[in-house]
Design brief:
By secondary structure, this protein is of the alpha/beta class. Helices cover about 45% and strands about 15% of the residues. The structure holds adenosine-5'-triphosphate (ATP) and magnesium ion.
């Protein structure tokens, strides 16, 4: 549940916000003045504050100023009527996330709130190198014990300890954004904002103004001054995603900020100084763009000082079981249900698929399988046809490469990798069972599991106790005793 603190003395506005947003996911908590809002914040811990510029008591701007003395990250959206736009701009300089003009367009309001909630989640959801699903509410982990991932972790650690610009490269879905957030959360700038901009998603002519802001009258439609992300994110970390899609003109400005910490707003001639750490990412080969003169060579070298290359999933297949297990637990937690288990055959198919969409594709496949699976286990039939087809096809590129998950690899993160020892495959199943049992504390787990295993083995071997006992790794005498103890039905024993 996300709490939005609405500081506004007009009851009409409070009423409309409640009508628009109150839901299972969002709660609007009103405050009638800046003073009241500031008092509420420490206890309420809102995700977002939406505040009017003009109110009785202290103004919105003063409220924001006081808030910033103790909290540099809490996201604030200012609301303003036309005459007070200048104040809203001042608020942006103080680190407000955005502002809304009254009377507001509901679609625009919803869009800004959604984008602020996403930015708040990025800042709040700590990213660690080990997923701690059970302990921390908003912890996200980077799963991986392949050697290539161990190198990534090392670099993330080094980057977090420094203030250097970094370039993260890798195919789509390999975890570039996740890693950028890991650097931020572990860096000394973690108490300051983190803002992400997808350079490919913003039209070229608007990107420059989005990043650097513009002066009033800079171009048609620039009716008021605008503060860009660099100014808003002062002292923080700016994540420039898909930097390969940036125009040469914008690249020049970025280079200048990197070299001198200054820039001018579009249409302006006053240099603005900022202290912003840049983390850039791209899924395009920038070397090639440099050769084609689409990307500035000097900017490339400047960004490339520390390069973090995310390995594609098909080159670290040993991590697939770990990731599967991680996502099964993640979604079980999210839905408040016991985690489903994955059959070894299903896992085998996942390990053979080449994963062009990398971890994101794997996560989607697991989410889909959880919806489709009817029982407690995920079957091969619950996977999308492209995976089953790829596995059925004659072996080509899809053959699993030897994995880095040897006996000397780091401690497994919540699951086992396929290895020389077949009992390792049991780990994720037992883990899932354990989590299920934790959610059902009345159950006597070990006897219940023992009983079910015996019933299954007897069924499989049509009641043949010798074969069933062999399969279970116990003696026939032990099997008999258990059959009696658990009152396993007669019809299972004979035939
Ligand atoms: N090593 C990992 N461990 C756990 N989850 C991961 C890992 N790598 C990626 N993910 C998850 O996969 C999804 C995609 O990751 P992310 O958005 O960071 O990839 P990306 O490289 O930025 O992709 P794109 O190029 O498509 O933007 C996210 O939900 C992320 O949490
Ligand atoms: Mg991304």
């Amino acid at each position: 549940m996300e709490k939005i603190l609405l500081i506004d003395d007009e009851t009409d506005v409070q009423y409309s916000f409640r009508r628009i947003f109150d839901s299972a996911e969002i709660e609007i908590v009103p405050a009638n003045s800046g003073e009241e809002g500031l008092k509420l914040i420490p206890k309420l811990k809102p995700t977002l504050v939406i505040m009017d510029v003009r109110m009785g008591g202290i103004s919105g701007l003063e409220t924001l100023r006081r808030l910033r003395q103790t909290d540099s990250k809490l996201l604030v959206i200012m609301m303003t009527a036309y005459g007070t736009t200048q104040t809203a701009i001042e608020a942006m300089k103080l680190g407000a996330y955005d502002y809304l003009l009254k009377p507001f367009d509901i679609a625009k309001l919803k869009e800004i709130v959604a984008s602020a909630l996403k930015a708040a989640r990025d800042m709040r959801q700590a990213v660690s190198f080990q997923p701690l699903l059970e302990s921390e509410d908003y912890e996200q982990g980077i799963v991986g014990r392949a050697e290539a991932m161990q190198n990534v972790f090392k670099l993330v650690g080094q980057l977090a300890a420094s203030d250097a610009t970094a370039l993260i490269t890798g195919e789509s879905g390999t975890g570039k954004e996740l890693v950028a957030r890991a650097v931020y959360h572990n860096s000394k700038r973690s108490t300051q904002p983190f803002l992400a901009i997808n350079c490919a998603a913003i039209p070229e002519n608007l990107l420059e103004s989005e990043l650097f802001g513009h002066e009033k009258g800079a171009f048609t439609g620039a009716t008021v001054q605008r503060i860009g992300k660099f100014e808003q994110c002062n002292h923080g970390t700016l994540f420039l995603d898909e930097i390969g899609d940036m125009s040469l003109a914008t690249q020049t400005k970025i280079l200048r900020v990197l070299q001198s910490g200054t820039f001018e707003r579009v249409g302006g001639n006053q240099p603005v100084s900022v202290d912003v750490r840049i983390i850039a990412a791209t899924n395009k080969p920038l070397e090639q763009a440099v050769a084609e003169k689409k990307f500035r060579e000097d900017l490339f070298y400047r960004l490339n000082v520390v390069r973090l290359a995310m390995p594609p999933l098909r080159e670290r297949r040993g991590d697939i079981p770990l990731l599967v297990n991680y996502f099964l637990q993640k979604y079980a937690r999210k839905h408040g249900t016991p985690p489903k288990v994955i059959l070894p055959e299903t896992l085998r198919q996942l390990e053979h698929y080449p994963w062009p969409g990398n971890v994101r594709e794997l996560e989607n496949v697991i989410q889909r399988a959880l919806v489709v699976a009817k029982g407690e286990a995920i079957l091969p039939a619950d996977l999308p046809p492209e995976i089953t087809r790829a596995v059925a096809a004659p072996k080509t590129e899809a053959a699993p490469a030897p994995t880095a998950a040897g006996p000397t690899a780091a401690t497994p993160v919540g699951g086992g990798a396929p290895s020389a020892n077949p009992t390792d495959d049991i780990q994720p199943l037992v883990r899932a069972l354990f989590l299920w049992a934790r959610a059902h504390p009345v159950c006597k787990l070990i006897p219940a599991v023992e009983r079910e295993l015996i019933i299954n083995a007897l069924r499989e071997h049509r009641g043949n106790q010798v074969h069933a006992a062999r399969m279970l790794g116990i003696t026939r005498a032990t099997l008999r005793k258990r059959v009696e103890k658990f009152g396993i039905k007669q019809e299972l024993q004979v035939k």
